[in-house]
Every structure is written in C-alpha cells, then in structure tokens.
Amino acid sequence: MTEGTTKDTSEHKTCSRPPIPRFNWGAFLIPPIWGVAHGQWAAVFFVPLWVFVDNMIRGPRPFGVWSVVVGYAMAAVTLGFQVAFALNANRFAWSRVADQISPEEFRRRQRIWGVAGLAGAVAVAAWITASASGA
Length: 135
Hints:
The chain is mostly helical. The protein has one domain (19-132). The chain is built from six helices and no strands. The protein has helices at 3-15, 25-29, 31-37, 46-58, 65-97, 103-132. Helix 4 (46-58) packs antiparallel against helix 5 (65-97). The chain is elongated, with a radius of gyration of 20 Å. The N and C termini lie far apart (74 Å).
C-alpha cells in the first residue's frame, strides 16, 4: 500500500459523519424551543398543530364524532412528523456546528437538551393533569 493511498483513506475517515445519536430527545420533546435554538424554524409549526389536535378532541364538536376522529388522526400525523423531525434533527444540527465543536461536545450538549426536554414534558404533563382535575 502506498503512502498516498493511506493518506486518502485517513482523510476520507475524518470527512465522514461522526458517530452522533440518530434520535434527538430534545427535538422530540420540545421541538419549538430546540428548533429555534438550532436554526430549525419549521419546528415552531408543531405548536399550532397540537393546539388544533387539542381543540378537535376536547373542544366543541361541530361535526359530532367526526371531530374527535379527525383530532386523533391529526394527533397520529403530528406525532409522526415529530418523530421524523427528531430522527433528522441531529444531522441538521451537526451540519451547522461541525466546524465549531467536537462530536463529543455536540453529544454532550444534545444530552442536556434531552434532559431539559424531559423536564419540560413532565412539567407540562403535571400542569395539564392539575388543570384537568380542577386543582
């Protein structure tokens, strides 16, 4: 093997995608906040989608039972979009910061976002539970 071939192979390895997690829990649990912080402004549209779902399921039912059916169908579609967003989030976020931070630092920051997302999801669930019980 020539030295040039070895050098090309090592350069190819450094240019390949680093081992970053495939799924981003921060992007899944708090997409509007994570998205804005990482330049993914489309994530803001999850808020009106979930408000629409909530209104179709819990609000007045102008179309009878079909309002609830549409609400649950939209919930499934929105959840699917949110999963797809979380599956692609690390790739998009890494492409923005690859020349600024190391892969280890990127993983550490995304782990913090995941913990923050879990804390936010628990807080929202507690708030919804408290407001639904009339407390």
